[in-house]
């Protein structure tokens, strides 16, 4: 029996029937998972189903945490305020340390969703969770890097033989600010990096497997940075993820159904308590 829509990942047994239900209405589903762990882990979905095309968008873990969603804005308004007013530091050091220690937001957000099980425990997170997440992403059809997301979407469209998969709202922004620009206290930033070290390793690993690899070159003549795009032939394997449902020849456009119209998503590609992831 199909269980779509669902707030939880699909079980292996229900994947095929759920795909048939979804494809009657949508070509593309952007799905966000949060509040992990779930009763059903992402590892249980049948990612090898021939009618399922899966996409994971990787993002720097600190940037993902700082993206902010409705819950963060309500509980830690200074986090959101600081992103939109870099002239002033919002929130005290104690405020920021409370945020950094909040396991719901600051403890390996994407890794916790991907690995499931009993992940994560900050800096003491076991490496087996990283390996679980990597094994999962190896089953995904495509990995995209959010730093060149539109180019990645276009590359997927070309791979699938469709005119255009869609343009992300990411294109409205010239860049995603670096961690140092988002966290006003250096000691808090270093602490967050320490807690999320395995998530950083996962992100670096995923970038190397991305369909389009974006690298920053040396400064150009105008003092800025050129972006070099490299098409990676290998597939990949979210956080948060988007799944395209392939009904044989009929791939179609990218009609979306967002379980959570949160942050990691749409307007700012934030971690709008979304999954993602």
General description of the model:
It is globular, with a radius of gyration of 18 Å. The strands form 2 sheets. It has a 4-stranded mixed β-sheet. A two-stranded antiparallel sheet has the order 4-5. It has 277 residues and is an alpha+beta fold. The chain is built from 12 helices and 6 strands.
Compact summary:
The protein is of the alpha+beta class and 277 residues long. The chain has helices spanning 15-23, 61-66, 70-75, 77-84, 93-100, 103-106, 109-115, 127-137, 149-160, 179-182, 186-195, 197-208, and strands spanning 28-31, 52-58, 142-145, 212-219, 225-231, 241-245.
Cα distance spanning the termini = 26 Å
Q: Rounded to an integer, what's the Rg over CA atoms?
A: 18 Å
Beta-strand residue fraction: 5-15%
Summarize model confidence as the mean pLDDT.
75
Please state the overall shape, judged from the principal axes of the Cα atoms: globular
- Spatial order of the strands forming the largest sheet: 1-6-2-3
What's the helical proportion of residues?
Answer: 25-40%
Q: Give unreliable regions as ranges.
A: 217-224, 237-244, 246-277
Helix and strand content put the structural class at alpha+beta
Helices and strands, in order, run as HEEHHHHHHHEHHHHEEE
Count of helical regions: 12
The largest pleated sheet is described as: 4 strands, mixed
Number-wise, the strands total 6
Write the layout of secondary structure elements.
Elements: H1 15-23, E1 28-31, E2 52-58, H2 61-66, H3 70-75, H4 77-84, H5 93-100, H6 103-106, H7 109-115, H8 127-137, E3 142-145, H9 149-160, H10 179-182, H11 186-195, H12 197-208, E4 212-219, E5 225-231, E6 241-245
Parallel strand pairs: 2-3
Antiparallel strand pairs: 1-6, 2-6, 4-5
């Amino acid at each position: 029996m199909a269980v779509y829509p669902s707030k939880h990942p699909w079980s292996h047994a229900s994947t095929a029937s759920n795909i048939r239900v979804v494809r009657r209405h949508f070509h593309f589903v952007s799905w966000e998972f949060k509040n992990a762990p779930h009763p059903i882990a992402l590892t249980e979905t049948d990612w090898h189903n021939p009618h399922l095309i899966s996409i994971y968008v990787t993002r720097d873990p600190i940037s993902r945490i700082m993206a902010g969603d409705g819950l963060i804005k309500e509980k830690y308004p200074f986090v959101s305020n600081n992103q939109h007013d870099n002239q002033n530091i919002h929130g005290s050091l104690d405020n920021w340390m409370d945020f950094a220690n909040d396991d719901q937001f600051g403890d390996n957000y994407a890794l916790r969703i991907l690995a499931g099980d009993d992940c994560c425990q900050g800096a003491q997170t076991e490496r087996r969770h990283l390996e679980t997440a990597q094994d999962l992403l190896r089953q995904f059809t495509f990995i995209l890097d959010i730093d060149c997301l539109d180019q990645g979407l276009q590359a997927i469209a070309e791979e699938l033989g469709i005119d255009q998969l869609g343009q992300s709202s990411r294109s409205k922004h010239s860049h995603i600010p670096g961690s140092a620009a988002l966290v006003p206290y250096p000691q808090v930033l270093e602490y967050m990096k320490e807690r999320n070290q395995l998530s950083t390793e996962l992100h670096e690993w995923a970038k190397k497997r991305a369909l389009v690899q974006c690298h920053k070159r040396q400064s150009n003549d105008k003092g800025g940075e050129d972006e070099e795009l490299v098409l990676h032939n290998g597939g990949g394997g979210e956080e948060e993820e988007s799944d395209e449902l392939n009904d044989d020849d009929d791939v179609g456009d990218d009609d979306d159904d967002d379980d959570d119209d949160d942050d990691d998503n749409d307007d700012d590609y934030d971690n709008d308590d979304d999954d993602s992831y």
